[in-house]
Known about the structure:
Layout: H1 2-11, E1 15-16, E2 23-28, H2 36-45, E3 51-54, H3 56-61, H4 63-71, E4 75-78, H5 91-107, E5 118-119, H6 128-136, E6 140-142, E7 146-147, H7 157-167, E8 173-177, H8 183-199, E9 204-205
Parallel strand pairs: 1-6, 2-3, 2-8, 2-9, 3-4, 5-6, 7-8
Helix pairs in contact: 7-8
Amino acid sequence: MGAIKNLLQRLYPCGVCRTGTAVYLTFDDGPIPEVTPKVLEILARYNVKATFFMVGENIDKHPDIFAQVVAGGHSIANHTYNHMKGWNFRTKTYLENVEKWEEVVNRQPCAPVNRRKIFRPPYGRTWWWQRKALVNRGYTIYLWDVLTRDYNKSRTPEEMFDQIKRQTRPGSLINFHDSIKSNERMLEVLPKAIEWLQKEGYELAAL
């Protein structure tokens, strides 16, 4: 695990893989009406706040689900407007897509005021100069140190849960996805993970 963390830090010198002493549940790719409300129900059941790295076009399609996330007291964060893989785009195009996300959120009546500029690159893939440009625009880039790979159909919920137990440390960023592809496995593991984390004494917080 230490080798993986060191590799991530070398590849992403402007990205945070672990922070503070709490543990942070994060969800990428929503909001999705078939999945995100179910995640919110589980989080509410355990009185846990999380961070949602949302795709802008999904916010455009489902502003009511976006509003539910905000009403639940969770953090919202930028995951580009079109779920862009930075390696495939010029920096100017990539930054325009990030800013388009901001415009969409700012149009929402329920958008939190004075929110932090938090960003996670889709697929975790950006060029270093793209990351530098984002940091220069005031973003903090959060990656992860526990990648559940809940989107992988070959992964079992048992394997995911075991990984969370083995890899989680104080400050861990646990990466889930509130997406159709991850739905079944993620929703099975999430309550088990929360119960285990709380039993182990971890504080669960939003970024």
